[in-house]
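Weekly structure sync, notes
Attendees: PL, DS, HV (note-taker this week)

Item 1: methylmalonate-semialdehyde dehydrogenase (CoA acylating)
DS walked through the input record. Source organism listed as Amycolatopsis echigonensis. Sequence as pasted into the shared doc:
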Amino acid sequence: MHIIDHWIDGSATSAHSTCTAPVYDPATGRPQASVLLAEPSDVDIAVSAAAKAFESWAESSLSQRTRIMFAFRDLLVRHEDELARMISSEHGKVVDDARGEIARGREVVEYACGIADALKGSFSDQVSRDVDVHGFRQPLGVVAGITPFNFPIMVPMWMHPIAIATGNTFVLKPSERDPSASRLVAELYAEAGLPAGVFNVVNGDKVAVDALLEHPGVAAVSFVGSTPIAKHVHERATATGKRVQALGGAKNHAVVLPDADLDYAADHLTAAAFGSAGQRCMAISVAVAVGAAGDDLVELLERKAKAVRVGPGGDASSDMGPVVTDAARERVINAVARGDEQGATVVVDGRGCTVAGHEDGFFVGPSLLDGVTAEMDVYREEIFGPVLAVVRVETVDEAIALINSNPYGNGTAIFTGSGEAARRFQRAVRIGMVGVNVPIPVPMSYYSFGGWKDSLIGDSPIHGPEGVRFYTRAKVVTSRWPRTEAAFSFPTSL
Ligand code: NAD
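Item 1 (cont.): predicted structure, written out as tokens:
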């Protein structure tokens, strides 16, 4: 069976790793490769290579870094088909959806192509007699990225293009469920002319993550994944003095008002709840139907959920592929069962879904539950599967209160024809990313991405200007080129 190895210091290597984990094809339910699981000593080799590379990479010119980013961007375009199929075969999502994540990741590379502008410093002339001040930002050193399975290209690309373009070197620990795309990215960076050691991939699990968190050679850690692990990463890495950004899980609500175009809202909710089998951090998992919107909305959602074509991600006629593992499938099935037991109405039941010719695949169909309340497990837990819970409320204010009392705060959306309601909603919700008639409001690469509350531990959102700030530290230089003699009195602004 094919072994997915590491990429360290410009070449493929197994380093000291002997343990492996299976990488499944979720559409067949069968292992298709094995991925190496790094030992702490492998992590050390990668961090040492990155530290060595940092010495020269931090001295590289902005022009050189920009040229490499442009070349890398072109290679991503040329390899899009290969990458999309690779993602689909390990993650399960449909190929067009994988293309979508590649495009969104590439936009961060495009932002990094303009790094010279983003890194411009500041200058104040004559702050005191014959004294000038200028400020600029410098890279941190070796930075690590630890990423989830659900966007194997896009989420790492929220990190490494900006880290590298700002002069850092990078060690990526991708998800062990779908690691191949990251290995190909390493090869594309090398082809684009990135020097050895600037971008490294260490495959592995918790052992590799903990080794990165403890390693004294790592200056900063970017993490995206579930909230409990985000909290662990934040706690451990800050305890060892590292800068940390840690994005966690989500429970995203979409509020539908009676004055919305309900057919439009139902179309978008169906795609946002069941696209990628609900395994998106910005997936809509709760529809909050306000007042008279409820009955018509549920009827429309039922019809549209039943029309979702479930099948292998590589099949062009599928709207939705399998979930990533058998354990994920079980989790979804149990969540729907608990919703049923706790009093929700299961309007569409995805539990019995099978796909002809793929009976062992990790398939589960779309599920729609009505009459869900804030006390039920199906509302409280992040299911991370194709389950849409409908909560009914009477007013927009009730909807806002529900959203604000939820511990997660990643994304939310409102569907309405009222500018007044939309404006009130966007100002009042305690959520990091808000959509108005847009169900999945993932910010463009020149803004930053980040939730509030338990969806982001610490205070650093990712990519865009916040990414540049995260991967650099500020320095301020006060300079004088005197013609006069030095004085012993304390300097004043004369
Ligand atoms: P996960 O938290 O299980 O894994 C994320 C990373 O942490 C992986 O690289 C994994 O190897 C590592 N890891 C897992 N368990 C660990 C442990 N005990 N100690 C140290 N490291 C560990 O997440 P996942 O299942 O891969 O991804 C889905 C989760 O990610 C969902 O909760 C989803 O909401 C979240 N997510 C959030 C965002 C966001 O922007 N906020 C984006 C994508 C995914």
